[in-house]
Amino acid sequence: MNYLVTGLICSGKSTFLDIAKKYSFDTIKSDDIVSNLYNNPSVVHEIEKHLDIERNQNNLKAIVKELFFASKKNREIIEAIFHPIVHEMITDSLDINQNLMVELPPIVNNYDLFQKYKSIYIHATREIRIGRFNKCNNNDSSYFDKINDIQSDFKLIKEACDLVICNDDDTDTLNKHFEKGIIKK
């Protein structure tokens, strides 16, 4: 069986996907798809054209990240470039695979996918997520808040998901969903 996996920043999506691999699931992270799209010349051209970025920038990913957080308009442009391609790749993968888990952020642009496919929402309290973020990242602490703000539609997404898993404890809690057969291959 295939599943979409979502949750707020540092809720445990990556850990959940790592556990899923042990139970013979293939996994895809939407962030990895986006990272690979920076190698696609037509995507790069669209980014440079619509965001008015000088051609052949060495650090295009960093520039786009900065622009993404700079304004809602920039975010909409970037999402309009990436999301249709990412959604098509995910849909194609889900249609041809079995035992696949795909991680997606809990944003409204992904809502239709969460309604169409079996989905799992990984929940963790803000305090737990901040602790995980600070433990694993040396990023600017405002990054957590920026991502959290962008994922403000998470309640709508959470309600659309078939299963909500609380991940305030340790990884054994996530493992139990596989062991008990709640998540099926």
Describe the structure in your own words.
- The protein is of the alpha/beta class.
- The chain has one domain: P-loop containing nucleotide triphosphate hydrolases (Rossmann fold, 3-Layer(aba) Sandwich).
- Helix content is 57%, strand content 11%.
- The protein contains ten helices and five strands; from the N terminus they run βαβααααβαβαααβα.
- The chain has a five-stranded parallel sheet with strand order 2-3-1-4-5, with helices on both faces.
- Helix 1 packs across helix 10 and helix 3 packs antiparallel against helix 5.
- The termini are close together.
- Contiguous runs where pLDDT drops below 50 for at least 5 residues: none
Tally of individual helices? 10
Radius of gyration: 17 Å
Helix content: 55-70%
Give the terminus-to-terminus CA distance: 5 Å
β-strand number:
5
Question: What are the defining features of this structure?
Answer:
single chain; 185 residues; alpha/beta; Rossmann fold; 5-stranded parallel sheet; 57% helix; 11% strand
Short summary:
By secondary structure, the protein is of the alpha/beta class.
Topology:
Layout: E1 3-6, H1 13-22, E2 26-29, H2 30-37, H3 41-50, H4 60-70, H5 72-96, E3 100-103, H6 111-116, E4 119-123, H7 126-136, H8 142-150, H9 154-160, E5 163-166, H10 171-179
